Amino acid sequence: MAQQNPAPGGGPNWGARPPASGPAKAHRRRFPRWRIFTWVILAFNLIMLIWIITGVSSTAKNCKGLTGEALTNCQANNVGTGIGATLILVVWALGDVILGVLWLITKPHKRYCPACGNGVRRGVLHCENCGYDFQQMLQQSQSGRGQPGPPAPPQWKQPPR
Predict the structure, then answer these.
(1) If exposure means fewest CB atoms within 10 Å of the residue's CB, which of 9, 38, 58, 72 is most exposed?
(2) Angstrom distance (rounded) from CA 99 to CA 43
(3) Residue 27: how many CA atoms within 13 Å on its side-chain side?
(4) Is the pTM of this model over 0.85?
(5) b/e map of 31-68 (b: 16 or more CB within 10 Å)?
(6) 31 HSE (CA, 13 A, CB side)
């Protein structure tokens, strides 16, 4: 059986990832970890987009070749479509403004670990994923040393050869 070379000096090591120091996640997320309200805003925008597209495309007609009352009705239909589309766009814009303000004034109940990006509840002193110590960061910032620098990346243990 061939032994794989480590990545730094002996070539690329594409398949092996160093083991994490904390508990490993069982699966990767398929969707971003957004707040629920963000998903509501996204759903609202998709519904409005579908509504405007179906409304405009279902009534768009070509009035070429029509005469008399048929021409008048066709032109009135196109004007009505324009008015309806404008009203939908106004509702869409107002809805986005209202939802955007609500999104800004609501805050999440989590903070994120600066080392690994995992969501951590407020009041927890250690990241469950990588073990980052929030209490140590607080002590460093209060000791007068200024702002703490960027956190050190988690240290991976080298597997035995």
Answers:
(1) 9
(2) 11
(3) 3
(4) no
(5) eeeeeeeeeebeeeeeebeeebeeeeeeeeeeeeeeee
(6) 7
Tokens 């996204």 map to which residue? 42
Length of the chain: 161
Q: Is the dihedral of CA 118, 119, 121, 122 positive or negative?
A: positive
The closest of 62, 43, 51 to 84, measured between CA atoms, is 51
Answer whether residue 36 shows pLDDT above 50: yes
Could you give the CA distance from residue 48 to residue 55 in angstroms, rounded to a whole number? 10
Pair 129, 113: CB distance under 8 Å: yes
Contact between 99 and 88 (Cβ < 8 Å): no
| CB count in 10 Å sphere of residue 147 | 6
Question: Comparing C-alpha atoms, which of 27, 11, 30, 87 is closest to residue 56?
Answer: 87
What digits encode the pLDDT tens for the residues 83-100?
Answer: 888 999 999 999 999 999
Place of tokens 């409304």: 55
DSSP of 6-69: PHHHHS---S--PPPSSPPPSS--SS----HHHHHHHHHHHHHHHHHHHHHHHH----TT--HH
